Amino acid sequence: MATQFDAIVVGAGPAGTSAALGLAQAGAKVLLLERGEHAGSKNMFGGMMAYCPAPEELIPDFWAKAPWERAVTKRTLSVAGAGSTTSLTFQAASDSDRPAAGAGSTSDKSLTAFTLFRPRFDRWYAEQAEAAGVTLLTSCRAEALVLRGGAVRGVRVAGPDDIIEAPLVVACDGTLSLLARDAGLHKGFKAEQVALGVRALYEMTEETVDERFGLIGREGATQEFLGCSEGVRGGGFIYTQTDAVSVGLVFHLDSLKERRLPPYELLDRFVASAPVAPLLKGARMVEYSAHLLPEAGIPMVPKLSMAGLLLAGDAAGFCYTNGLTQEGMNLAMASGVIAAKVGAEALAAGDFSAGRLAKYKAELKDSFVLRDLATWGKAIDFMHHDRLFTLYPQVISALMEDMYRSDGTPKERIFRLARRAVSGRSVGVRRILADLIEAGRGYA
Amino acid sequence: MIPDELFDLVSYRIHPEAHIIVDQKVCEGCSHRACTYSCPARCYVYSEERGKVDFAYEACLECGTCLLVCDRGALDWHYPVGGYGVRFRLT
What we know:
The structure holds 2 protein chains of 2 kinds.
Chain A: E1 7-10, H1 14-25, E2 30-33, E3 48-50, H2 62-65, E4 70-80, E5 85-91, E6 113-115, H3 118-131, E7 135-137, E8 144-148, E9 151-156, E10 163-165, E11 168-171, H4 178-182, E12 194-203, H5 206-213, E13 219-226, E14 234-240, E15 244-252, H6 253-259, H7 263-271, E16 284-294, E17 305-306, E18 309-311, E19 320-321, E20 326-327, H8 329-349, H9 354-357, H10 359-366, H11 368-375, H12 377-382, H13 391-404, H14 414-422, H15 429-443
Parallel strand pairs in A: 1-2, 1-11, 2-7, 4-13, 11-18
Antiparallel strand pairs in A: 3-6, 4-5, 4-6, 8-9, 9-10, 12-15, 12-16, 13-14, 14-15, 17-18, 19-20
Helix pairs in contact in A: 1-3, 1-8, 8-10, 13-14
Chain B: H1 6-9, E1 11-13, E2 20-22, H2 24-27, H3 35-38, E3 44-47, E4 52-55, H4 65-69, E5 75-77, E6 85-87
Antiparallel strand pairs in B: 1-6, 2-5, 3-4
């Protein structure tokens, strides 16, 4: 390629496009590589991301322009036991004229999350980067980083001689983070550090989605489940799209492996389960997808930079759940914006040394990206207890069933009901107290 | 079940060559064969008859599960050549 690039960004997902666009806006000549036939064609996620201000730094009114499906104002957390499901719903107050949804239909957009389709959203976002001068090369697989004198100097794209040089590479190549692994920034992730998400998309009319989930206009709803994964550490989700519903499960990969249960069989049973089946009645499955996501927090975060290289998004391990929120795309976008900022400063100074680019980690530490991963560190660890996914959902179900049971016998106080819900299970009061203390340390 | 309908549910542009190479010699003696039940696209199927794991790359969703559940390093794992493999429409 004759053109000289200042920077090569690998992967046109939310991290890569943010980095490419930010660098281009700072005057850099940027090449954005994407192995899919268009940006987004290889990308999937659960279906919802929290409102994130980071891309608004690059595109004014980003959320009024971006192709999202529904603005989520209603979020339900459900705990599923054998014979019952117990739920808690959060609903943000909305403006009186909710259907006139601009950037989210709630009056407070920081309380909004967006459901969206990655093949549409990522493609649109990459088009904005192209409009800002980024050269987007699709159907192009990055084979390896070009290393010289301990510094990354470019990317090899096909045959051994097909090398594109640039003084700065931003690797946003997804969860497996193969480029960074081959450059020695991490040793390859382990099954216990990632989760597998599987998801099915069900088509139904917009009116049906509105009716079944109690929505008006472009409002959306989500429902997340604990205790629906047959003993595998993981959870389930339902996200409303405009005229479709995404249903899926996410499992810790080590737990899925240990339990020897095929993910699509678990998904089949989840879709047919009592709380889910009525929501999908008569709807047709139109797509199925799967993806790995980083899930171990700070301990899995690789070395984030070296001379000539920055890592962002999933490739940097920036994704987590604390059981209540699931964060990934927002961390990807924010890290991409920060990578662009640090990269642009390096370009201006003509200095791509390890020392200069180490500023990236320092900036991330000041931002919500590494701060949130640190804040929820203990909660992320807490999510790796098997008890949370089988035993406790069953205890909660048993307790709630006793609470609502009306069989002509005298009622008992809650403490006695709780004792009965626990009795006969393989957990003692001490264990429960210890878990409560650990939960307190993780969340309080 | 989903894997039986995969080619109706998912769009692919299939490359003539596999992007993942399974070293059957390394697979011999594997006690768990986790690839056969963890892969979300059921690309790995154990054949009792042949006494080995059959691998078909065509329905691969490119997630990387097999790479991480295999603890013997039996896989030479790559993404498909650019422009090939799975192409999600909406997902």
